[in-house]
Amino acid sequence: MDLARHAEFFVALAEELHFGRAADRLQITQPPLSQGLRRLEEHLGVRLLDRTSRSVVLTEAGRELLGPARELLASAERFRERAEEIGSRELTVRIGLAGSVPLELTTTITAAAARLLPEVTVRTWHAPTTTLLEQVASGALACAVVVHPCVLGDLHGSEVVRLARDVLIGPGALEASDPTSEISLRELRSLEFATYERAGNPASYDLEVDELDRLGGSRRVVAHATERDALGSVANGRAFTPVVRGTTTPFQLDRRQLRGDPLPLRLRAVWREDAPAAIRRAGQQIADELHEWAGNVA
């Protein structure tokens, strides 16, 4: 029998002295609680509780065994936590990052996770948000940084962090414009909007395209397999693409600040609800790093 689980039944009943309250505390119904207590008493060969229709009272044996039962539960919890810690040390933790996450933020996230998990090999993997969500849900990835909005399903998501973005354009793409001034999306309407394929995250893709339409920006959207591939369209002077503020400007491209920050990058960390404690802490630390980054470049 599962001695620890049945001891948990006994302790809950001994502390609540009421089957209904004990069952609620254990999140089970009363019949399996009664059956579990009876099996425990049969296994131990002693009666632990005297129960009537109105009361539950510890027997002498029950009073003597309550302390050891509590110690058993505490020991089982320490055993579980220790096993989880050892299991985390043996993992190569894979963290997923959406393609929109810039190189500078990639290194920040990886370093933060490595500091939190010093005995674990941390590796990052870039992929579209939809792929990352599937991989986290299946357990192939420990956690991921994805673009919001997206459908999380049963995954836990941190608070959404908003990162301001500029735009990259090719040299001379807007010759009549002052290169030091802010620019509106309407002023970019002669250029194509280079972005990732819609299948990578339909919700965020549609949000950006709708915002372009609302603000009079380009109606010509050119989709690429990744955000990095979009730079080719920008380099030939035919398109523009968003880039996180505070990051390095690629060689031979021009950066312009958007007026009103109409195309922010919204990111959040996600992980499984049942992930080991060490992974949940790493996910939250990554979320904290996103917040700090956003504050530093605001």
UniProtKB/TrEMBL annotation:
One Pfam family cited in the UniProt record for this chain: HTH_1
Family, per entry: Belongs to the LysR transcriptional regulatory family.
GO cellular-component term (any): protein-DNA complex
Matching SUPFAM superfamilies: Periplasmic binding protein-like II, Winged helix' DNA-binding domain
Keyword Transcription: yes
Organism: Epidermidibacterium keratini
UniProt keyword list: DNA-binding, Transcription, Transcription regulation
All copies of domain HTH lysR-type, residue ranges: 1-59
Top-level taxon in the UniProt lineage: Bacteria
GO molecular function term, any single one: DNA binding
Protein name: LysR family transcriptional regulator
Claim: Transmembrane is one of the keywords in the record: no
